UniProtKB/TrEMBL annotation:
Residues annotated as domain PLA2c: 18-242
Signal sequence region: none
GO biological process terms on file: glycerophospholipid catabolic process
Keywords: Hydrolase, Lipid degradation, Lipid metabolism
Record's GO cellular component terms: cytosol; nuclear envelope; nucleoplasm
Molecular function in Gene Ontology: calcium ion binding; calcium-dependent phospholipase A2 activity; calcium-dependent phospholipid binding
Organism phylogeny: Eukaryota, Metazoa, Chordata, Craniata, Vertebrata
Organism: Labeo rohita
Origin: domain of life: Eukaryota
PANTHER family: CYTOSOLIC PHOSPHOLIPASE A2, CYTOSOLIC PHOSPHOLIPASE A2 GAMMA
Protein name: Cytosolic phospholipase A2 gamma-like protein
Length: 415
């Protein structure tokens, strides 16, 4: 599993202004990378054709830049994003999206999708493969330790990122994905352009500089600062705008250090417990691997008080998506400066005493979801799309209209 929850200090890059950009150099320019521009031009034509099918009339110059942004939240975010994308596809809206971006758990979903060339053309098949994997057995301890050994001896710089990916992320995504982001350059001409985002912890805590760092198949860098390097050099050390060496300057971290330390400690304890179980099985002549081993691991990793199956007393699906719809309306009202108190009361009324139960059922840190939990969460996320399809179309039409109006207001001599 590639790690995307990364911190990288701006001070580690000593940058210089320059006209050109080459591999191994820092590009500082308020323009898209040339390869990204070519990709977007091609994708924009797909969006244009899709808008025509939806009877949204515009010229190619008026095609809006529509991005879908996925939130963080571990497996909950991963499954929720997948459910939203599936329903967007069914509603005929998926190909309206120019960019697909996510952070933390949403990037787990993106990484799974972009393993498949042109995944958006066969999303139902890709979705089934992902759900089958998430519902199945995980990666064995033997394979995890072998992978860490390979990273330790084969990489220039072995860091906590490798340990975090193999020991913490793998039990949720049920695989170790060794594909690189740069491999996505040539296999996704029909998909939205992917942007994996991370937060610079140092900038976030100090409230200075650019806290958002983005990684796409071509470049990695600070969005607001406009400083980027070729993605294949991400993690290298740069001096005066040029690559100095491949020493890694990034590591994995959550926003809350207490959470990450607690999670790692739980994993470590689980590993020692599992090793004892494996040794006992070997002494007794029982099989030490396979499904039996994985069942022991999941039991060891399951935090106290959190059920690994769906609680039938949890919030019904219809009320769940009503809450999500109200949240969408609340955000729109807040952006337009309108009163949101009524919607707030509606949300609280629907959740009532089930709020804490819902949080417990779908915590960020808990045992991997059961097949039933995955199905229910995807249904809730999907209904948030289907019940807001008309609103989404209305927003798209409004953006297209504004872009067209602005185009006619611009003086041609000012272009």
């Amino acid at each position: 599993m590639r790690m995307l929850d990364t911190t990288m200090t701006p001070e580690a890059l000593v940058l210089k202004q320059g006209q050109g950009w080459a591999r191994g150099e820092v590009r500082i320019k308020p323009l898209l990378n040339g390869s990204e521009q070519e990709f977007i031009a091609s994708r924009r034509n797909i969006v244009f054709q899709t808008l025509k099918k939806l009877q949204i009339q515009c010229s190619q110059d008026e095609v809006p830049n529509i991005a879908l942004l996925g939130s963080g939240g571990g497996q909950r975010a991963m499954v929720g994003l997948l459910g939203s994308l599936v329903e967007l596809d069914k509603a005929g809206l998926l190909d309206c999206i120019l960019y697909l971006s996510g952070v933390s758990g949403s990037t787990w979903c993106m990484a799974s999708l972009y393993q498949e060339p042109d995944w958006s053309t066969k999303l139902d098949t890709v979705k089934n493969k992902i759900i089958e994997r998430l519902s199945g057995p995980g990666v064995s301890l033997t394979d995890k330790l072998e992978k860490l050994k390979k990273y330790y001896y084969g990489k220039t710089f072995f860091s906590l990122t490798d340990v975090w990916a193999v020991l913490f992320v793998t039990p949720y995504v049920k695989e170790i994905d060794e594909q690189t982001i740069t491999e996505q350059r040539k296999h996704h001409k029909k998909d939205p352009f992917p942007i994996y985002t991370v937060i610079d912890k140092q900038c976030k805590q100090s409230k200075t500089g650019d806290p958002w760092f983005e990684i796409n198949p071509y470049e990695a860098g600070y969005s607001l600062t406009g400083a980027f390097v070729d993605t294949c050099h991400f993690g290298s050390q740069f001096h005066e705008g040029s690559k100095k060496n491949d020493e890694a300057l990034c590591g994995s971290a959550l926003a809350d250090e207490k959470d990450i330390m607690k999670s790692i400690w739980e994993r470590i304890k689980g590993i020692f417990q599992e090793r004892e179980t494996v040794f006992e099985a070997m002494r007794e002549g029982r099989p030490a691997g396979g499904h039996e081993e994985m069942n022991v691991v999941e039991e060891n990793f399951e935090p106290a008080g959190i059920a690994s199956h769906h609680d039938p007393t949890s919030l019904p699906v219809d009320k769940s998506y009503q809450v999500l719809m109200d949240l969408v309306d609340m955000n729109i009202c807040a952006l337009n400066g309108k009163d949101t108190s009524g919607l707030d009361q509606s949300i609280r009324a629907n959740l009532n005493d089930k709020l804490n139960q819902w949080r417990d059922d779908y915590r960020t840190f808990q045992a991997s979801y059961s097949a039933e939990m995955i199905t229910n969460l995807m249904e809730v996320a999907g209904k948030n799309i289907t019940n807001n399809k008309n609103k989404l179309l209305e927003e798209i039409r409004m953006v297209v209209g504004k872009k067209g109006t602005r185009r006619f207001m611009i003086n041609p001599n000012d272009k």
